């Protein structure tokens, strides 16, 4: 809770806050908003800000909080039917004139130089990347992406609890994909079902993390570490939908995993297994081993086999610098997407924003008889101009259809309260016969 008043000292009792979803670090905008209250004008030479840090915080996080930028002030301007009708009613002004001079439009016009500079930078970066035999690399890249899409579909099917759970024995090796984060082989420890309508299982896995992220308390801040590099094994909870591959191999799990030495012993076992399988660990066959015999799975397996064969036979596969070339082209493809996005942003900023919404609003108003083809408002339009609390069109239609004619004042107020009522109710209240009909018309 914040007070909109100056004070000599501002005290942050914690560097984290719960935002309704997670316990996270405060943002630089929140820090600036609160710390800006320190120091009373005309009374204090300087304000004092005290930030209590009761847990380990990385230098990067601390710098982002204290030295970060304030939250940008963005216009939330939105066209409404009431606004359009009131602008049509005034002579010498029209909705297009108002749109051109709105703060929303000004913000986008003012962003044009920065967007143009961003577009030029992206185009220069794109042109600077020269790839030999680019068409050949592009075909390999497209094949690889198609293969990944098929793998995603296969992963969705094998992650169905009825197929997945029987193979989540302790020691099972699995790979995990969470957004852009790819975890090398992790070790399954146990799992449990999370309460809820949709079946969701939480799996505890032993994953190889970077030293810095392994020291963090929150799982949202973890970063995977390749098994070939130095890191630390740590138990993390994951959703069952994040599993990517399931190996046919299981490793031995010690009884006590609380010590770092026991967890590192498992890491050594996993590294030894990977060393004995240079072509990759054997995976469970979705059809033969897991018993998924649906037509979709059979089709995906055939697609995967075909694409994998084409990928293995591709001329680029024999290139000794394949990894470097692929990463270079992937970076170029990413920059190409940035160029396209920058062009679209620039085009949007240069055009009159929300003009499409305005045309659609006018079309609705003409069809319902609120204004004519010359944008001159009629009687219904003048009535709707005076309604700005609830839905102006629905309220006007109720008025002109005579819904309120036979209602008493209290009944009319009860019906109108539907437009402003925000309280959540689990049960439908019992209505008198006089209100049931009007409520059905409103709905």
UniProtKB/TrEMBL annotation:
GO terms for molecular function: ATP binding; helicase activity; hydrolase activity. It comes from the Eukaryota. CDD domains: KOW_Mtr4. InterPro entries: Beta-barrel_MTR4, MTR4-like_stalk, P-loop_NTPase, RNA-DNA_Helicase, Ski2/MTR4_C. GO terms for cellular component: nucleus. This is ATP-dependent RNA helicase Ski2/MTR4 C-terminal domain-containing protein. One of its GO terms (biological process) is maturation of 5.8S rRNA. It comes from Rotaria sordida. Residues 372-443 form the ATP-dependent RNA helicase Ski2/MTR4 C-terminal domain. Keywords: ATP-binding, Helicase, Hydrolase, Nucleotide-binding. Gene3D superfamilies: 1.10.3380.30, 2.40.30.300, P-loop containing nucleotide triphosphate hydrolases (3.40.50.300).
